[in-house]
Write a structure and sequence with these properties.
By secondary structure, this protein is of the alpha/beta class. It folds into two domains: about 5-135, Arc Repressor Mutant, subunit A (Orthogonal Bundle), CATH 1.10.10; about 145-355, Dna Topoisomerase Vi A Subunit, Chain: A, domain 2 (3-Layer(aba) Sandwich). Helix content is about 40%, strand content about 15%. The longest helix has 20 residues, at about 5-20.
Length: about 350
């Protein structure tokens, strides 16, 4: 949506509430439920989506009134302080802008940032406007390098000429314009340390690739950037993570979406993404057992949970991986490949796996 469209959507939400008040009705807002019972796996699109169940939040309901006020106040701040001024702010900024005492009481409208964050997510669902379109940004958490030139708010940025740090990926990548993209594929990795190795070895230059990393779970900005590179330039996306259940989950989120952000699946998921490693087969192939980290109870519980996801439960290749995890009773970090040479991952492991199409789907 454009800024005007976003403003219009929020204004319409406010107008409905005002209309209800003028009619002498109990002010009420309706929204799709975001709980597990209303999350649906769409087999056709291979993404998680919200179902048809809805809920309401009314002002004259003691159980709803505070959340109702939080939603309205956050909407007001976004409309007046951000969209009207054309400025952007962080999630933390929004929290402080709505942190005030409710008139006539000693009760704060919000006490914790999670409350204002949830109100923003509710507004996304109610209006169809993304957080980024509301001019609300999260913290930066990712780096990218490659033969790509972009324009970001009037500045021309060449991802191939940003030294050891690369381009710091913002949470809002909607406004960037791609001027030149020279790459055969995109390689995403969960570990910033691995990205630094690949960047120093100029992996992106030698292999005509774009290398991109976060530090652990992917942010919305990273997921959206990956999706844009796939949709606008038809670039294959490969995911490289630790050899554990959490790496499989990171891949799952990029490919299918997450329960928490099922309402935003259309602009965040990439059903064609493929997992390149580390796999349980790599452990034997590259003699990594000496670098095992023993699984604990949380690991086993997570393996059980993820293996039962609808999109994994009938996937024989992934079920085999989950079985091997339990048989090994261990996991392994991707940095274990460094034991075979500091640049083994960039010079042999990744190029060979991609060339031979050794990936999981």
């Amino acid at each position: 949506m454009s800024k005007d469209d976003s403003k219009k959507a929020l204004k319409e939400l406010g107008s409905k509430i005002v209309h209800q008040v003028k009619k002498g009705k109990n002010p009420e807002i309706e929204f799709p439920l975001r709980n597990l019972s209303n999350i649906v796996y769409d087999k056709k699109s291979k993404t998680l989506k919200l179902g048809q169940k809805t809920g309401t939040r009314s002002f004259f309901n003691v159980a709803h009134s505070k959340k109702f006020l939080q939603t309205v106040e956050v909407a007001s701040v976004i409309k007046e302080k951000l969209l009207d001024s054309g400025k952007h702010s962080s999630l933390r900024d929004v929290f402080y802008m709505v942190k005030k005492t409710i008139p006539g009481t000693k009760v704060n409208l919000v006490d914790d940032q999670t409350e204002s964050d949830k109100a923003i997510e509710d507004l996304e669902v109610m209006t169809g406007i993304s957080r980024e379109e509301m001019h609300v940004n999260a913290n930066k958490n990712g780096s990218v390098a490659g033969k790509v030139i972009i324009e970001d708010r009037g500045d021309t940025i060449d991802w191939s000429k940003l030294g050891s740090g690369g381009w710091s990926i913002p949470s809002n990548v909607e406004e960037i314009t791609f001027k030149k993209v020279d790459a055969k594929y995109v390689l995403y990795m969960e570990k910033a340390a691995v990205w630094e190795r690949l960047n120093e070895d100029k992996y992106w230059q030698k292999n005509d690739a774009i290398i991109l990393a976060s530090q652990g779970q992917t942010t919305r900005g990273i997921r959206r950037l990956l999706q844009r590179l796939y949709e606008e330039y038809n670039l294959p996306i490969y995911v490289c993570c630790d050899g554990d259940i959490y790496g499989a989950y990171i891949y799952s989120v990029i490919k299918y979406g997450s329960i928490a952000l099922s309402h935003a699946s259309e602009r965040l998921t990439i059903p064609s993404v493929r997992y390149i490693g580390i796999t349980m087969d790599d452990i034997e192939k590259y003699d990594l057992k000496k670098h095992f980290i023993t699984l604990d109870e949380k690991d086993y519980a997570r393996i059980k949970q993820v293996s039962e996801y609808e999109w994994f439960k009938d996937n024989k290749d992934w079920q085999r991986q989950f079985k091997m995890m339990k048989e090994f009773k261990a996991k392994v970090e991707i940095q274990a490949l460094s034991a075979r040479g500091i640049s083994f991952i960039s010079e042999e492991y990744l190029p060979k796996k991609i060339k031979n199409k050794e990936f999981l789907d």
